[in-house]
Design goal:
The chain is mostly beta strands and 296 residues long. It contains 2 helices and 16 strands. It has a 14-stranded antiparallel beta barrel. The chain is globular, with a radius of gyration of 20 Å.
Length: 296
Amino acid sequence: NPAGLAGLTCPAAYGYNQNSFDDLSKSMLSYVYPTQYGVFSAAYLSDTLAGINIADETGLIVDSIGYTQSMTTLGYALPLLNDKVYLGGAFKYYKNDLDGGMYTVSGQDIDLGLIYKVQNNFQIGVSYQNLHGGVMGMGGLQWSTGTQEAFAGVIRLGVALKLRLFSKPTAVYTSLDNFVGNNYPGALNFGIEPELCRNFVMRLGFNQNNYSLDRKKTLNDIYIGAGINYSDMQIDYTYSVNSMDEKGNRHLISLGMTFDTPKTVITPIAPSYGPMTNTALAGDIIELTSDDLGSL
């Protein structure tokens, strides 16, 4: 949910790298900067798959190609009504390449999000992903061959709650996805994050998705992870167990860093903020934080 950016009060950078099956690599780098006019963000994500074998009619491998897809995003969010409401949006630009530039594709779309703080420890968020494709019918990918590939609109409704479980501060998240303009099945997501000590949390998550090859059925994924936050640095690890060999098991390590609070913060509309933390931090766990909002 891009509205979660509005909870950030100091600049931050995040990134991760992931390798699967020796041939598939994923990476991400992002930067967030709050100003008196709102919170701005930029991110770059890239997936690369090498060693795709091409066989002839007899099954003999005659060639090997690669596929790269990337997405560049620009985000903006603003706190409203004395920090009770966060409003945000993101522009996404896609650039894909198949077989070393033989076939290329580009496209763009927009996400919008809203978060409402019911209480300091309870928040509700809603976002609409792929607004152009889902509502206006203008988004999607345009291949160099002339083929068009549409994006499905996604309405995501989520809640975030922080409470004490077995005397440990614990965050609980859940969201429901509904796909617009197609017959894709909906998806339910759930996560729990107990704080074992001040700078260390464990994570357990359950995710439903429809990213099977035919998109006709829902797949179930389980995520197990941990997060360490020390000073201004955050390290997260996740191991995902997927329900089909189509995706396989994966390890993900991410690194984040926050910087000193800027001299100018957003004061005209939202005179105060909660603590700038993240889902790996075990600081003031009783109050919801910016990354918690983003996970909605």
